[in-house]
Amino acid sequence: MIKQQLFIEKYDWHLTVLYKANKDISTVVEALWFIKCPYGIATQAIQTIIAKRNNGFCFTNNLIKSTLIGISETDSDEQLVNTVVHEVKHMQSHICSYYNIDERSEEAAYLIGDTVEELYKVFKYELEQS
Predict the structure, then answer these.
(1) Per-residue pLDDT tens digits for 73-107
(2) Angle between helices 106-129 and 77-99 in degrees, nearest 10
(3) In whole angstroms, what is the distance from residue 59 CA to residue 35 CA?
(4) How many CB atoms lie within 10 A of CB 49?
(5) pLDDT band at 54, cuts 50/70/90?
(6) What helix, strand, coil percent values describe the chain, rounded to 5?
(7) Which helix (H) or strand (E) holds 23?
(8) What is the C-alpha to C-alpha distance for residues 110 and 117, in angstroms, rounded to an integer?
(9) Is residue 64 a contact partner of residue 11, using CB atoms and an 8 Å limit?
(10) DSSP character for 103?
(11) Distance CA 28, CA 2 (A)
(12) Do 130 and 77 meet the contact criterion of CB atoms below 8 Å apart?
C-alpha cells in the first residue's frame, strides 16, 4: 500500500490517500480512527475496500478539515484514474459545501484539477508498474 498526504493550502485542508488499501486493512482502520470516522461508516468503508476491486471510499471530517480517500487495487490504469477522480470529486463536494462554493464554478473545477495533478505525482508510479 502507498500512503500519500497532501495539504491544500488555499482551503487549509488535509488529504490522505491510501492506494491499494485492500493490501493493508490495519492501516486503513488506523487512518479512519485518526480522522475520527464514526464506527458504522468506518465499517462500511472497510467492507467496500475488502470486497471489491476497482473501488474506493471518501470520508471527510469537517471539524478538522481533513479527508481520507481509500482506493483498492484496480484492474487497469484507466480504472485507477477513474477511481481517483471519482473520490476527489467527493472531496471537492465536501470542501465546496464547507466553504459555500458553487460546485459548478471555476473555483470548484480548479480544486479537482489541481488536486488530481498533485496526486498524479504518486499514483503515476502505480501506472508505471502495471
Answers:
(1) 988 999 999 999 999 999 999 999 999 999 999 99
(2) 150
(3) 9
(4) 24
(5) confident
(6) 60, 20, 20
(7) none
(8) 10
(9) no
(10) T
(11) 11
(12) yes
d(CA 32, CA 124): 25
| Three cell numbers, residue 81 | 484514474
The answer to whether residue 36 scores a pLDDT higher than 70 is yes
| Of 69, 68, 70, 60, residue with least CA distance to 97 | 60
Rg over CA atoms, the chain: 14
Which residues, other chains included, contact 123 with Cβ-Cβ below 8 Å and sequence gap of 6+? 2, 4, 17, 19, 80, 81, 84
Q: Which residues contact 93 (CB under 8 A, 6 or more apart)?
A: 103
CB atoms within 10 A of CB 106: 8
Give the burial string for 12-45 (b: 16+ CB within 10 Å, else e).
ebbbbbbbbbbebeeebeebbeebebeeeebeeb
Q: Which pTM was predicted? A: 0.94
- The amino acid that residue 124 corresponds to is K
